[in-house]
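User: Round two. Same drill as before: sequence, then structure, for each protein.

Assistant: Same drill it is. First protein:
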Amino acid sequence: MNRIIVISLSIIILIGIGCASKRYARKGEKFEKAGLYEMATDAYLQSLAKRKDNIDAIVGLKRAGQHVVDENCTTVVKSYQVDDLKKTVYVYIKTDSLRNRASQYGVELTISDVATQCFNDAKPKYIEKQYSEAKALLDEEKFAEAENLLSEIKKLQPDFGDVQELYKISKCEPLYRQAKQYMNDALYRKAYNNLHKIIHEFNSYKDAFELRNEALQNALITIKVNNFTSFYPNTSNITTMVQGAVVGKLNNLNNPFIKLLDANNSKQIIDEQRKSDMVGGNLEIGKLLTAKAILSGEVTVLQISEGNIYKTEKKGYLREETKTKDPKTGEVKVNVSYQKTIYYTYEQENKVSIAFKFQLTSTETGAVMVSDYFLSSKSDYIEYATFNGPGEKLVPGYWEKKDSKSSNDVVYDDITNVNKLHRLLNARRQITSINSLINDAVDELAMQAVKKINYYNPEK
């Protein structure tokens, strides 16, 4: 059965692709009749991208595409004759790209030898002209303008002269000079970011590697974590969970300017220091292991409510249908009867609220670097119904006595009330535990606190 479905879907997809190919081919024909040969060529290419063996598109591409190539060749020759080197080069490149795209579908488009000769003569002249201008711009320290020209040359001829080295200078020098100024202004994070861009793209430039290391050394905030406290007695386990979550998330930060110090990760810091290729040089271990900031925290609110399960007896009806056929008319009648019954509903709610305040204090000045207060409330509520019988026949209602009728008896056999009851019969019966809610609240608090620390930037 599954194989039949797969085959059917494949056929539908192939039919859809074929139809799309035909639509593009028809568009190409219309554009071509209107003399819009470039648009026609694009439409034929899109048609063949959908279906490579579309004969109408292949023939159309050969016809319209060659017309575009011929016009472009004329433009190349005329541009060369008036010494417009740039236009000569780029129109030819565009034409050659079209030829290559067409060849993917077996369509050969021909560029004239004259146009090719013009291009071959114009390209080195144009590159040399751009190169000379780029060097002049570098001499004038107009790095951005030089970078644009050198980038163009790299695309046209990557191995031309020392273009790669000049391009590196045009990119790196302004970043390097700015980084040096940042260092003088004690903006070490900004200096680090500039130098990191240089090293990331080019591996090395002047003494960027050593400067980046120096910038990191000065920008680094090493944090010692004091044991968190709690306003409430006998809550050391919650406090420990909050502290552990904060420490864990701080250790996992992808922030080069923050390092956490505690008894467990001092060895890790020393190991990381030895990986000079990753931190940008040999940081001084003594400075690394000296805390520049103290992190303290306190759990100020702790409310835990584990709810009891409330069971309620409900009165309802079993809906029974019987069908009878009229012997004379043959009409089938549906007779509905209701039998009184009972079912049960259950409710339970678990709630947790935890508040946490923290403070990051400078050991050098005593100033508060970061502080905040966060509250996290988590809860879960379940409500479901059980019935010892065929649930699909159960409908809600009310009755006074099971064995006798009353004017107060009522059946709610409408789609809204029946669907609501059936949802309760199929509802989730396992409530989220208090421990899980605590874990979620702690994780949220830690995430908010660490996010605040991570965003702290003394240079802003």
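Second protein:
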Amino acid sequence: MRATSEAEVVEAVREARETGRPLEIVGHGTKRAFGRPVAGEVLEVSALAGIVAYEPEELIVTVRPGTTILELTDALAGKGQVLGFEPPEWAPLFGNSGRSTIGGAISVDASGPRRLRFGGARDQLLGIRAVNGLGEAFKAGGRVVKNVTGFDIPKLVCGAFGTLCVLTELTFRVFPQPQECAVLAARDVDPEPGFALLRRVWSSPIAPAALTYIPSGTETGSTRESRGTALIRLEGTRGVLADKIARLRALAVDCAIEEWAEGAALLAALADGEPFVGSACDVWHAHIPPASAVAFALSLVDARWYADRAGGFFWIELPAGNASSRSALLDAALQVRGHAILVRADAATRARCQVFPVESKERAALTRAVREAFDPLSLFNRGRMVEV
């Protein structure tokens, strides 16, 4: 089925309720292989696209979920503005040639390096329109930043993988585009001093817009890093940026800092998972307390990896379908009070192994109650996050 309006979404959901057939919600389908395999009739919502309202002076934009990230960011750039969570383009990572949509980015909670400064998608999604599993259109949140009335439902849809409702409209807070940007690098540094520098910068008043570490052997454009590199992106007006760079050099007491002309393009490529595009391996994300980044990195003996957010977010590549490597990764993440999510693997692997972290009994009960409130028949993306 293909919906071209909210009314058609309502009709499709009500029909699914009557027949008992689950629905797989699909936009452009670029992240369709993220999560457990889903069975059901496809409800395509890519036609729900376009900018509904844009008020640059109020720093607010409202779009339909099928709007591509590229279209939205280009429209904002025309007014000197950006999305603070810097949504990445993961389509090539999944072997797709199409363009990712903003609705897909919200559904999987995809954020880029600038999340470190402005917060993630859930922090900037002000309001939504959607259709629940009862076939009812509803709206939640608002079109102002300080909307605190009622329960903050928009936050729930971020990272819900389309299991709660079918989004039909999204309202975001946007930010002024930085006037100046510089990427600086501490090159030829091992993980311990590299992550230590990134954490010092993070806790300083510099307000970095990216803190990334790439280990030895990582291809970075035309060169191969001999030991490792810590990358720091700074933004601001010319005078502010110069002051930030001076402060950064003072913080880097044990390593040399240099500006890297290729740094901006490299950070974008890393955010998009480009080093793992085209490989046959499984790809994971690990969310780790930054203070434990070194210990976690040292446990990744047979894996390719790099880290963002001062060591709080790892990209990891493991041999496809290798149970022992997968088990070792999950154990290592638990040891440092973190968790790992399987991002890319074949359908058989995603069906039989743990894709998302196992929830505690209490949290699982809360999750189940929320899903039942939105979608009591479990019509939407059934089985994507938990086996049913």
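The CA atoms of residues 35 and 384 lie 5 Å apart.

User: Perfect.
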